[in-house]
Write a structure and sequence with these properties.
The structure is a homodimer. By secondary structure, chain A is an alpha+beta fold. In chain A, a hairpin with a 5-residue loop joins β5 and β6. The N terminus of chain A is likely disordered. The interface between A and B is large, with 39 and 40 residues. The structure holds a DNA duplex.
DNA sequence: CGGTATGTTGACAGTGATCAAGAAAGGTGG
DNA sequence: CCACCTTTCTTGATCACTGTCAACATACCG
């Protein structure tokens, strides 16, 4: 871990881009509200007792390196976090992006198999693995939350793996539709991450991502307000590209 | 579900190819031995009480269709099972192969999002989702097994997703190394599934799979005893292709 | 033994990567 | 507020890897 900076309030983070502020600011519920919803004071107190942070990370800073001991697991409070693997030749594969409220990094291995980095300025909670396990043993709702989080992440990763043998147009359309459901899309869809991140996530070159967005715009499926701001003009047609 | 056939003994299945028999016959421990290892008679009785089957499936028969209600989850007893999604244009993506002992199909959705098919003759146990959940609520070891199974599947799916933007040679090498650790590799590595299945799993064409195997053989990294039987001659060199 | 399914190899084409140049956006300092 | 610089994005030209089409070989099965 590097570039760690303790802060007093979530408001201190995520101001790099106006659109990003809008995204995080418009969230009605706090990411950890699942504990409240469970209505179990004991569980809430138990989980919070093993919480560390939140810790603020600047964009592109590393939260955990591949190979680091898997002592902690994480939850995004604000911003976007990417989980990736970098190869010797410098190419990088981004397995997943995580949005606020998502628990990630849970593993049975002793070491993390993926690096975790801040794709935007981000605010991240830490949970000590061993402590969370012992809480889960006492509180069934905590155990359930662990299982549910892992199951959701598995489903998303499976859907992503399905994209492997599909065309560039299909991958980009899928990504845009997916993203629009995961972050608050007021009217415009603000891309919180760089095109390079999107390219590494979809297994495409940055040039192909750009060209494909242009192509979708020419077909009037989307509209490019700015490089990082897109309007989905025809969701139905975009969805048809996937089937 | 179709082509279901109740049988008395696992011996009745998996005889299609001699190599397949050798693979399944050489397993020392029974796939459900985790229950015994847990040493909890209550848990064992509880889990077995919600078991259905085993049911035998012939190669290429469908176990569950995409969109079927997710009332049951599954465990491979014998053979290889594939989980896939087929698109309108006929192309198919195989997200994962499952080997004996693996629990799969766990989901939070009401419907299965992937089809499940027998890649070889296979023997499959069924567990009623709701029943397994209530057992897990009583027996922490059962809950743990659910979480561990899901976590393992997530890790494997993540590793598979990483292969997206890598070369054909790298994908095939990765697949062969991976397979050799998952099935008993006496001296030869018997491919239990067809080249078409491998191609759909790796996002390659069947021709490219064939050509890549030929290429690896020319480089003396592997040796092709027959179309379905391969010897890994130089594991270290194969592993170097991945990094 | 013949027929079907599966695997192999070659020729060619197409999608997307690479290389290169320019444009736009964001950040910094005057 | 503007000038400058850096980063990010866009577009074009070319190339390479892999897909497609086709023919043949081999294995499997009745």
């Amino acid at each position: 871990m590097n570039e760690i900076e303790f802060i007093k309030s979530p408001k201190a983070a995520g101001k790099q881009r106006p659109s990003f502020k809008a995204v995080s600011g418009s969230r009605e519920s706090h990411p950890t509200s699942f504990i409240v919803e469970d209505g179990q004071k004991l569980a809430k107190r138990a989980v919070l007792s093993v919480r560390r942070g939140p810790i603020r990370y600047r964009r592109n800073s590393t939260i955990v390196c591949e190979g680091d001991p898997a002592d902690y697991i994480f939850m995004v409070v604000d911003g976007i976090v990417r989980r990736c693997k970098t190869f010797q030749n410098g190419t990088r594969a981004i397995v997943a992006f995580h949005t606020p409220g998502e628990l990630f990094g849970w593993t049975d291995e002793v070491k993390h198999t993926l690096s975790t980095e801040a794709a935007t300025d981000a605010l991240v909670l830490f949970f000590k693995r061993s402590a969370l396990l012992s809480v889960a043993a006492r509180e069934q709702r905590v155990a359930n939350f662990l299982l549910t989080s892992t199951t959701s992440e598995l489903r998303r990763t499976q859907e992503h793996a399905v994209l492997i043998n599909r065309s560039a147009k299909c991958r980009v359309a899928s990504f845009l539709l997916n993203l629009s459901t995961r972050i608050d899309e007021v009217s415009d869809l603000d891309l919180p991450m760089s095109h390079q991140d999107i390219a590494d996530h979809l297994g495409l070159s940055i040039e192909t991502v750009s060209r494909t967005i242009t192509e979708l715009e020419r077909a009037c499926l989307i509209e490019r307000v700015s490089a990082r701001t897109i309007v989905l003009r025809n969701r139905a047609a975009l969805a048809r590209l996937l089937s």
